[in-house]
């Protein structure tokens, strides 16, 4: 005979099993009245699926909580993912940047610099990553210098499909280096123009 009712909502059940728990999907089917009102329970082992899901959730959490900015571009240069840190550095929410071209947040002239970096990587198959400093324009119009580690991505056929960027804000460091260089240049100028002898 056919089952009398539709199946109950499936429920995932964790079964403690020493170091590695097992996960089962439990679903019940009510049997016809002739069977005494019993319920047929089917169990399906979903341990591997549950573990993959847990690992993916952990990875998502790590990406979102990473202090470094993380983002991906497709082969056209469109941002198809960025984490909270990357977006916040530029004064945006992640959803505001996804779907936008990289030129939206790059300062004038920086897009060609980024494209040249990708082209160099494509011309050197043995090297799939490199670091480049780029100036970005925040939503409020101010600029930040980010050190970007580019890693190229490829499709199943080995064709270039975009890149993964890991971004670190180095604006303050660059400003300190500029200030140090200016002080050094002024000191050298003063020493060269001094009428008195100067010894170390």
SSE blueprint:
Elements: E1 11-15, E2 22-30, E3 39-45, H1 47-65, E4 69-74, E5 79-82, H2 84-89, H3 94-97, H4 110-123, E6 129-137, E7 143-154, E8 160-169, H5 171-193
Shape assignment: elongated
Q: What spatial order of strands do you see in the largest sheet? A: 5-4-8-7-6
How would you characterize the largest beta sheet? 5 strands, antiparallel
Query: What is the CA-CA span between the terminal residues?
Result: 103 Å
Low-confidence stretches: none
Q: Kindly state the percentage of residues in helix.
A: 25-40%
SSE string, helix = H, strand = E? EEEHEEHHHEEEH
Q: Can you count the helices?
A: 5
Return the average pLDDT rounded to an integer. 81
* DSSP, total strands: 8
Structural class: alpha+beta
Instruction: Supply Rg.
Output: 29 Å
Q: How much beta, percentage-wise?
A: 25-35%
Outline:
With 200 residues, the chain is of the alpha+beta class. The chain is built from 5 helices and 8 strands. A 5-stranded antiparallel beta sheet has the order 5-4-8-7-6, sandwiched between helices. Strands 1-2-3 form a 3-stranded antiparallel beta sheet, with helices on one face.
Describe the structure.
With 200 residues, the chain is α+β, with helices and mostly antiparallel strands. Helices cover 33% and strands 31% of the residues. It is built from five helices and eight strands; from the N terminus they run βββαββαααβββα. The strands form two sheets. Strands 5-4-8-7-6 form a five-stranded antiparallel beta sheet, with helices on both faces. The model has no long low-confidence stretch (mean pLDDT 81).
């Amino acid at each position: 005979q056919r089952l009398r009712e539709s199946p109950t909502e499936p429920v995932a059940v964790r079964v403690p099993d020493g170091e590695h728990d097992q996960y089962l999907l439990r679903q019940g089917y009510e049997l016809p009245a002739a069977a005494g009102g019993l319920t047929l329970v089917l169990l399906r082992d979903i341990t591997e699926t549950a573990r993959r899901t847990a690992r993916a959730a952990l990875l998502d959490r790590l990406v979102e909580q990473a202090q470094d900015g993380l983002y991906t571009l497709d082969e056209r240069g469109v941002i198809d993912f960025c984490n909270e840190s990357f977006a916040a550095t530029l004064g945006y929410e992640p959803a505001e940047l996804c779907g936008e071209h990289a030129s939206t947040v790059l300062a004038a002239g920086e897009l060609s610099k980024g494209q040249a970096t990708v082209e160099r990587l494509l011309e050197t198959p043995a090297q799939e990553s490199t670091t480049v400093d780029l100036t970005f324009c925040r939503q409020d119009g101010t600029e930040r210098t980010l050190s970007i580690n580019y890693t190229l991505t490829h499709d199943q056929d080995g064709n270039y499909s975009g890149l993964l960027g890991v971004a670190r804000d180095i604006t303050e460091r660059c400003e300190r280096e500029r200030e140090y260089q200016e002080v050094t240049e002024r000191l050298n100028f003063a020493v060269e123009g001094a009428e008195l002898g100067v010894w170390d």
